Amino acid sequence: MLQATKVPDAAQFVGAPQGTPLQGAELATRTVEVAGQLRCPVCQGLSVGDSPSAMAMNMKEQVRELLARGYSRDQILAYFEQSYGEFVLLKPKFRGVNSLVWILPLLALAIGAVLVATKMRRLEQPVPTTAAMDDEYVSRVRQLVEKE
Amino acid sequence: MNRTVLIIGIVIAAAVIALFAMSFGRDPQHIASPLVGRAAPSFALRAVGSGDIVDIAKLRGKPVVLNFWATWCGPCHAEHPVLVQAARALGPDVQFVGVVFSDTEANIASFLRERGEAYPTLLDDNGKTSIAYGVGGVPETFFIDRSGKIVAKYEGPMSGDTLQEYVQKVLR
User: What ipTM did this prediction achieve?
Assistant: First the structure.
Protein backbone atom coordinates (compact mmCIF):
# COMPACT_ATOMS: atom_id res chain seq x y z
CA MET A 1 0.00 0.00 0.00
CA LEU A 2 1.29 3.45 -0.87
CA GLN A 3 2.07 5.69 2.05
CA ALA A 4 0.05 8.91 2.22
CA THR A 5 1.65 12.30 2.58
CA LYS A 6 1.42 13.94 5.97
CA VAL A 7 2.12 17.50 7.03
CA PRO A 8 3.10 18.57 10.55
CA ASP A 9 0.02 18.80 12.71
CA ALA A 10 -0.77 21.50 15.26
CA ALA A 11 -1.50 18.73 17.77
CA GLN A 12 2.27 18.07 17.90
CA PHE A 13 2.67 21.58 19.28
CA VAL A 14 -0.45 22.47 21.22
CA GLY A 15 -2.35 19.23 21.75
CA ALA A 16 -6.00 18.53 20.94
CA PRO A 17 -8.46 21.34 20.06
CA GLN A 18 -9.88 23.07 23.12
CA GLY A 19 -12.58 25.12 21.44
CA THR A 20 -15.64 24.59 19.30
CA PRO A 21 -15.28 23.85 15.57
CA LEU A 22 -16.38 26.93 13.61
CA GLN A 23 -17.98 27.26 10.21
CA GLY A 24 -19.71 29.76 7.94
CA ALA A 25 -19.66 33.46 8.71
CA GLU A 26 -18.28 32.98 12.23
CA LEU A 27 -15.33 31.03 10.82
CA ALA A 28 -14.61 33.80 8.31
CA THR A 29 -14.82 36.52 10.97
CA ARG A 30 -12.61 34.67 13.45
CA THR A 31 -10.09 33.84 10.71
CA VAL A 32 -9.68 37.56 9.93
CA GLU A 33 -9.42 38.34 13.65
CA VAL A 34 -6.74 35.73 14.44
CA ALA A 35 -4.80 36.32 11.19
CA GLY A 36 -4.73 40.01 12.12
CA GLN A 37 -2.79 39.14 15.27
CA LEU A 38 -0.03 37.29 13.41
CA ARG A 39 2.93 38.98 11.74
CA CYS A 40 3.67 38.00 8.15
CA PRO A 41 7.27 36.62 8.37
CA VAL A 42 8.23 37.71 4.85
CA CYS A 43 6.73 41.23 4.99
CA GLN A 44 7.61 44.56 6.60
CA GLY A 45 5.21 45.11 9.48
CA LEU A 46 2.15 43.58 7.85
CA SER A 47 -0.18 41.13 9.50
CA VAL A 48 -0.95 37.76 7.95
CA GLY A 49 -4.48 39.06 7.41
CA ASP A 50 -3.30 42.15 5.49
CA SER A 51 -0.46 40.70 3.41
CA PRO A 52 -1.08 39.48 -0.15
CA SER A 53 2.08 37.27 -0.09
CA ALA A 54 1.80 33.54 -0.72
CA MET A 55 3.36 32.85 2.68
CA ALA A 56 0.76 34.95 4.48
CA MET A 57 -2.06 33.39 2.50
CA ASN A 58 -0.82 29.91 3.45
CA MET A 59 -0.69 30.97 7.10
CA LYS A 60 -4.16 32.49 6.91
CA GLU A 61 -5.49 29.29 5.34
CA GLN A 62 -3.93 27.32 8.16
CA VAL A 63 -5.57 29.60 10.74
CA ARG A 64 -8.91 28.94 9.02
CA GLU A 65 -8.35 25.18 9.06
CA LEU A 66 -7.39 25.16 12.72
CA LEU A 67 -10.44 27.22 13.71
CA ALA A 68 -12.64 24.86 11.69
CA ARG A 69 -11.13 21.94 13.64
CA GLY A 70 -11.98 23.58 16.95
CA TYR A 71 -8.64 25.10 17.96
CA SER A 72 -8.99 28.18 20.13
CA ARG A 73 -7.43 31.55 19.33
CA ASP A 74 -4.82 31.10 22.10
CA GLN A 75 -3.91 27.63 20.84
CA ILE A 76 -3.45 28.92 17.29
CA LEU A 77 -1.29 31.85 18.42
CA ALA A 78 0.74 29.41 20.59
CA TYR A 79 1.20 27.09 17.61
CA PHE A 80 2.65 29.83 15.42
CA GLU A 81 4.71 31.16 18.32
CA GLN A 82 6.29 27.73 18.83
CA SER A 83 7.35 27.68 15.17
CA TYR A 84 8.42 31.28 14.65
CA GLY A 85 8.99 32.57 18.16
CA GLU A 86 7.31 35.54 19.78
CA PHE A 87 8.28 37.61 16.75
CA VAL A 88 5.22 36.27 14.95
CA LEU A 89 2.84 37.88 17.44
CA LEU A 90 1.99 41.44 16.43
CA LYS A 91 1.12 42.28 20.02
CA PRO A 92 4.06 41.34 22.26
CA LYS A 93 3.32 39.62 25.53
CA PHE A 94 3.51 41.58 28.78
CA ARG A 95 6.65 39.99 30.18
CA GLY A 96 10.39 40.64 30.50
CA VAL A 97 11.84 43.43 28.35
CA ASN A 98 8.54 43.52 26.41
CA SER A 99 6.80 44.99 29.45
CA LEU A 100 8.82 48.20 28.90
CA VAL A 101 6.65 48.86 25.85
CA TRP A 102 3.75 49.45 28.24
CA ILE A 103 5.63 50.68 31.31
CA LEU A 104 7.92 53.33 29.75
CA PRO A 105 5.18 55.51 28.20
CA LEU A 106 3.20 55.42 31.47
CA LEU A 107 6.35 56.22 33.44
CA ALA A 108 7.17 59.13 31.12
CA LEU A 109 3.59 60.40 31.49
CA ALA A 110 3.77 60.15 35.31
CA ILE A 111 7.13 61.98 35.45
CA GLY A 112 5.77 64.70 33.16
CA ALA A 113 2.63 65.09 35.32
CA VAL A 114 4.73 65.44 38.49
CA LEU A 115 6.95 68.09 36.84
CA VAL A 116 3.95 70.07 35.59
CA ALA A 117 2.17 69.85 38.98
CA THR A 118 5.31 71.01 40.82
CA LYS A 119 5.77 73.94 38.45
CA MET A 120 2.12 74.98 38.74
CA ARG A 121 2.21 74.85 42.52
CA ARG A 122 5.21 77.19 42.49
CA LEU A 123 3.48 79.60 40.14
CA GLU A 124 0.38 79.71 42.36
CA GLN A 125 2.37 80.64 45.48
CA PRO A 126 2.16 84.41 46.36
CA VAL A 127 5.21 86.34 45.34
CA PRO A 128 6.99 87.52 48.50
CA THR A 129 6.74 91.29 48.89
CA THR A 130 9.93 93.26 48.66
CA ALA A 131 8.94 94.97 51.92
CA ALA A 132 9.35 91.76 53.78
CA MET A 133 12.77 91.38 52.30
CA ASP A 134 13.91 94.95 52.71
CA ASP A 135 12.17 96.53 55.71
CA GLU A 136 14.96 98.97 56.36
CA TYR A 137 14.71 100.48 52.89
CA VAL A 138 10.90 100.89 53.10
CA SER A 139 10.94 102.50 56.51
CA ARG A 140 13.57 104.94 55.28
CA VAL A 141 11.37 105.89 52.32
CA ARG A 142 8.34 106.22 54.60
CA GLN A 143 10.28 108.51 56.90
CA LEU A 144 11.29 110.73 54.00
CA VAL A 145 7.72 110.92 52.68
CA GLU A 146 6.26 111.73 56.07
CA LYS A 147 8.87 114.41 56.61
CA GLU A 148 7.65 116.22 53.50
CA MET B 1 14.41 71.87 40.36
CA ASN B 2 16.83 72.16 37.39
CA ARG B 3 19.07 69.63 39.04
CA THR B 4 16.15 67.19 39.43
CA VAL B 5 15.16 67.62 35.77
CA LEU B 6 18.77 67.04 34.73
CA ILE B 7 18.99 63.82 36.76
CA ILE B 8 15.69 62.53 35.37
CA GLY B 9 16.86 63.38 31.84
CA ILE B 10 20.15 61.55 32.34
CA VAL B 11 18.35 58.48 33.74
CA ILE B 12 15.91 58.38 30.79
CA ALA B 13 18.71 58.91 28.24
CA ALA B 14 20.80 56.16 29.90
CA ALA B 15 17.85 53.76 29.78
CA VAL B 16 17.24 54.47 26.08
CA ILE B 17 20.96 54.08 25.25
CA ALA B 18 21.04 50.80 27.22
CA LEU B 19 18.07 49.51 25.21
CA PHE B 20 19.78 50.37 21.92
CA ALA B 21 23.09 48.91 23.17
CA MET B 22 21.37 45.57 23.77
CA SER B 23 20.74 45.33 20.02
CA PHE B 24 24.14 46.56 18.78
CA GLY B 25 25.96 43.90 16.78
CA ARG B 26 22.81 41.85 16.34
CA ASP B 27 21.32 41.11 12.93
CA PRO B 28 17.74 42.42 13.11
CA GLN B 29 16.73 39.90 10.43
CA HIS B 30 17.95 36.99 12.54
CA ILE B 31 15.38 35.46 14.85
CA ALA B 32 16.42 32.54 17.00
CA SER B 33 14.29 29.49 16.26
CA PRO B 34 12.34 28.17 19.24
CA LEU B 35 12.51 24.74 17.58
CA VAL B 36 16.21 24.26 18.27
CA GLY B 37 16.56 21.68 21.03
CA ARG B 38 13.12 20.23 20.32
CA ALA B 39 11.87 17.26 18.29
CA ALA B 40 11.63 17.99 14.57
CA PRO B 41 7.98 18.36 13.50
CA SER B 42 7.03 15.16 11.69
CA PHE B 43 6.00 15.04 8.05
CA ALA B 44 5.85 12.64 5.14
CA LEU B 45 6.03 14.37 1.75
CA ARG B 46 6.26 13.34 -1.89
CA ALA B 47 9.58 13.75 -3.66
CA VAL B 48 9.88 15.61 -6.95
CA GLY B 49 10.64 13.24 -9.81
CA SER B 50 10.53 9.82 -8.13
CA GLY B 51 7.21 10.43 -6.39
CA ASP B 52 8.51 8.52 -3.35
CA ILE B 53 7.15 9.49 0.05
CA VAL B 54 9.88 10.55 2.44
CA ASP B 55 8.82 10.22 6.07
CA ILE B 56 11.10 12.11 8.44
CA ALA B 57 10.13 9.78 11.30
CA LYS B 58 11.65 6.89 9.34
CA LEU B 59 14.98 8.71 9.13
CA ARG B 60 15.50 8.41 12.89
CA GLY B 61 18.89 6.95 13.68
CA LYS B 62 20.57 9.02 10.97
CA PRO B 63 21.51 12.72 11.08
CA VAL B 64 19.38 14.79 8.71
CA VAL B 65 20.17 18.06 6.91
CA LEU B 66 16.82 19.59 6.03
CA ASN B 67 17.05 22.45 3.52
CA PHE B 68 14.12 24.71 2.56
CA TRP B 69 14.67 26.33 -0.82
CA ALA B 70 13.09 27.60 -4.05
CA THR B 71 14.17 28.14 -7.65
CA TRP B 72 13.24 31.85 -7.52
CA CYS B 73 15.75 32.35 -4.66
CA GLY B 74 19.16 33.54 -5.93
CA PRO B 75 21.14 32.50 -2.83
CA CYS B 76 19.61 29.00 -3.14
CA HIS B 77 21.21 28.68 -6.59
CA ALA B 78 24.60 29.42 -5.05
CA GLU B 79 24.01 26.99 -2.20
CA HIS B 80 22.72 24.11 -4.31
CA PRO B 81 26.12 22.80 -5.52
CA VAL B 82 27.49 23.04 -1.96
CA LEU B 83 24.68 20.81 -0.67
CA VAL B 84 24.90 18.37 -3.58
CA GLN B 85 28.65 18.02 -3.18
CA ALA B 86 28.39 17.51 0.60
CA ALA B 87 25.57 14.95 0.20
CA ARG B 88 27.70 12.96 -2.25
CA ALA B 89 30.80 13.22 -0.06
CA LEU B 90 29.04 12.18 3.16
CA GLY B 91 27.11 9.39 1.48
CA PRO B 92 24.83 7.34 3.73
CA ASP B 93 26.24 8.86 6.95
CA VAL B 94 23.99 11.90 6.68
CA GLN B 95 20.59 12.15 4.97
CA PHE B 96 20.07 15.37 3.05
CA VAL B 97 16.47 16.39 2.33
CA GLY B 98 15.20 19.42 0.44
CA VAL B 99 11.74 20.95 0.90
CA VAL B 100 10.26 23.23 -1.73
CA PHE B 101 9.23 26.65 -0.43
CA SER B 102 6.50 28.47 -2.41
CA ASP B 103 7.48 27.04 -5.76
CA THR B 104 6.10 24.70 -8.41
CA GLU B 105 7.00 21.09 -9.10
CA ALA B 106 7.75 21.93 -12.76
CA ASN B 107 10.25 24.66 -11.80
CA ILE B 108 11.97 22.40 -9.28
CA ALA B 109 12.14 19.42 -11.65
CA SER B 110 13.61 21.56 -14.42
CA PHE B 111 16.19 23.09 -12.05
CA LEU B 112 17.28 19.70 -10.72
CA ARG B 113 17.59 18.27 -14.24
CA GLU B 114 19.88 21.12 -15.22
CA ARG B 115 21.99 21.36 -12.07
CA GLY B 116 21.94 17.86 -10.70
CA GLU B 117 20.62 16.33 -7.52
CA ALA B 118 21.94 14.00 -4.85
CA TYR B 119 19.03 13.75 -2.42
CA PRO B 120 15.20 13.95 -2.43
CA THR B 121 13.46 17.28 -2.78
CA LEU B 122 9.95 17.24 -1.30
CA LEU B 123 6.80 19.12 -2.23
CA ASP B 124 5.20 20.97 0.64
CA ASP B 125 1.40 21.00 0.90
CA ASN B 126 0.29 24.67 1.02
CA GLY B 127 3.49 25.52 2.85
CA LYS B 128 2.37 23.72 6.01
CA THR B 129 5.74 22.09 6.63
CA SER B 130 7.53 25.41 6.12
CA ILE B 131 5.14 27.04 8.58
CA ALA B 132 5.63 24.30 11.18
CA TYR B 133 9.40 24.79 10.89
CA GLY B 134 9.03 28.58 11.18
CA VAL B 135 10.56 29.26 7.78
CA GLY B 136 10.40 32.95 6.93
CA GLY B 137 12.73 33.07 3.95
CA VAL B 138 14.94 30.78 1.96
CA PRO B 139 17.37 29.19 2.12
CA GLU B 140 17.00 27.95 5.67
CA THR B 141 18.58 24.72 6.86
CA PHE B 142 17.84 22.60 9.91
CA PHE B 143 20.27 20.08 11.35
CA ILE B 144 18.52 17.13 13.01
CA ASP B 145 20.42 14.59 15.08
CA ARG B 146 19.98 10.81 15.20
CA SER B 147 17.28 11.07 17.89
CA GLY B 148 15.17 13.37 15.72
CA LYS B 149 16.00 16.53 17.68
CA ILE B 150 16.75 19.82 15.92
CA VAL B 151 20.28 20.73 16.92
CA ALA B 152 20.79 23.87 14.87
CA LYS B 153 19.26 26.12 12.25
CA TYR B 154 21.13 28.17 9.65
CA GLU B 155 19.55 31.07 7.77
CA GLY B 156 20.98 32.04 4.40
CA PRO B 157 23.22 30.27 1.89
CA MET B 158 25.92 28.08 3.37
CA SER B 159 29.50 27.81 2.20
CA GLY B 160 31.19 24.42 2.22
CA ASP B 161 33.01 25.25 5.44
CA THR B 162 29.86 26.42 7.21
CA LEU B 163 28.02 23.30 6.16
CA GLN B 164 30.87 21.09 7.42
CA GLU B 165 30.86 22.93 10.74
CA TYR B 166 27.11 22.45 11.19
CA VAL B 167 27.12 18.82 10.04
CA GLN B 168 29.66 18.11 12.77
CA LYS B 169 27.03 19.17 15.30
CA VAL B 170 24.70 16.38 14.25
CA LEU B 171 27.44 13.79 13.85
CA ARG B 172 28.56 14.10 17.48
Answer: 0.85
